[in-house]
Each structure stands twice: as structure tokens, then as C-alpha cells.
Amino acid sequence: MKKIICIFMALTMLVLLCACGSNVTHKLGMGVVVNTSSSKDGSVEIEATVAAVILDDAGKIVSCKVDVAQNKLDVTDGIIADDAASTEFKTKREQGDSYNMKGASGIGKEWYEQAEAFENYVVGKTASEVENMDTSDETLLAGCTIGTTDLIEAVVKACNDSLASEFTGDAAALSVAVISTLDSSSKSAMDGEDGSANIYSSFAAVALDDSGKVLAAAYDEADPEVTFNDLGEITVDADYTVSTKRELREGYNMKGASGIGKEWYEQIDAFEDYVVGKTASEISSIDTADADLLAGCTIGTSSLIACTAKAAQAAN
Fold this sequence. Notes:
Blueprint: H1 2-22, E1 25-35, E2 43-55, E3 61-74, H2 92-95, H3 111-122, H4 127-131, H5 138-141, H6 149-159, E4 165-168, E5 173-182, E6 195-197, E7 199-208, E8 214-222, E9 226-228, H7 245-248, H8 264-274, H9 280-284, H10 291-294, H11 302-315
Antiparallel strand pairs: 1-2, 1-4, 2-3, 5-7, 6-9, 7-8
Keywords: Signal
Protein name: FMN-binding protein
Signal peptide: 1-21
């Protein structure tokens, strides 16, 4: 009889634990760091590092994903080629083995493999612990010897994301996506005026359940502009910093021109809520004239849809 009671109690505890686990509240945060310091005469280089984290209720990282958009553009003699607009910018993760780091790596690992080691290393840590982590730790260096300065900063930003989305339950997958394009406002240097390489990036992160439906989403954009003269010399200030639209908040100054009186980040928040429960295919097929969507988000949504769907698809 005692044995039966013990078994019953054990089963009861198991059921309760499972129930509790499924009702745990998590947060999805995203952080972006844009760096133009690698630009040099004749070549514009914009590195945009994105990190997404799922945090538990104690602020510890449950899951992490990172990627880097290393966008380069030739501006020799101050000229942007006529066909530059068709340039396909791939992230380091998207390049996979073709990034070709393995041969030069002291540990024989490609970039995406080292990024995965970094992601695993920060699991269980808080923002403060990531910010202060020892980058010479042998456990980290066993799998990741690439520079981690921007990765760490992006993860800390993601952990401290005040616009993080809450969701209930455990995510089966976490994914990030980046889409970068050379904006049509870019121009060659001409008639004594500096040229400008405006490589804009969209960032999306999604947490998915085991059926591929969005539990939470995050989205942001960065619009860096690197100037150069007719010799191709970089003229942007050495201390040039780029804030994302999400980071600018009210500083983006859209509310006054918005028909629904909402700032950019507020409309993005509405879009993020709108895609909850949707699959990658359903996101791609969103009716942009849907009244429920337009009640909170009237900005152009083509980039939002494309990047969010890309993130959801990548997780599958």
C-alpha cells in the first residue's frame, strides 16, 4: 500500500511539475550593435551584430542566437557601381562554410560553429554575468576564439531590452534573421560633394512552439550612412554611432505624422503581437489591409513581413 501511495505521489508531483513548466513566463529580447570602424579608403564596411535571447523569470538566458551582417561596398574613386543596388548581402551565419574561416582558425572551426559555442556558453547567465564574462576562459576558447566584443554587447542589450515580449511556456526554437539592402538614397561623390553608402538592415527574432507557430517576435531596423569623398576616402566621423529605430523610441519622431498617433516602435510592437500564433507561411501571406493590423500598425510592412517570415522559416 505504501508503495502504491509513493508511486501516486511521484506521479502527482510529475504532473504538477509539467504543468508549472508549461506556464512559466519567458521574455524574448533583441539587441543590435552597428559598427562602421572597419571602413577604409575605397571600401565601406558596416558590421551589424544582432542577438536574440530568451530569458527566464530570474533574468537568466535560456536560449541565445547571434548573427553578423558584414556588409561591404566598393567606393574606389568615390564611385558606387551602377549595379551595386543588386548586391546580395549575406550574414556570416548564412554564408556557412563558404565564409571560409576554418582553415585560418586555431581550433579548426567555421564562424557559425564558433558562434554556436558562444551561444551555448552564455546560457544560464544574466546580463551582468555576460557583460563581465572572462573572454580568456578556457571553456569558451575551446569552442570560440573569434572576437566577441560586439557579440557580448549585443547579448547584453538583448537581455536588457525594455521592449522585450513576454510569452508563456517553453519555446521549441529561437531564430534570428537579417535582410540588408543598399538604399536608393546612396550616391557617388560628385561635384565636390561627398558620396554616401546607405546600407540598411532589418532584424527579426522569433521564438516558436513545437508546431512552428510564433510565441513571441521582435523586430528592428538600422539605417547607417557612411560618407566618402571623390577619392574614396571615408569622411564619416571616427566616433560615428548608429542607434536603431527601436533604440531611438520617441527620438525617431514619427508620432506627429502618424495617422494613428503612434511612434515607430509602438507600431512595431503591434506588428509583433499580430504575428503571434502564426507560422512562417502565414506571416508571408499576411493581408496588409487587415483592419486588426492597421489598428496598431500603418507603416510599410514589406520588410517586417519578409524578415520575420525569414526568421520563422530559418528555425524550421
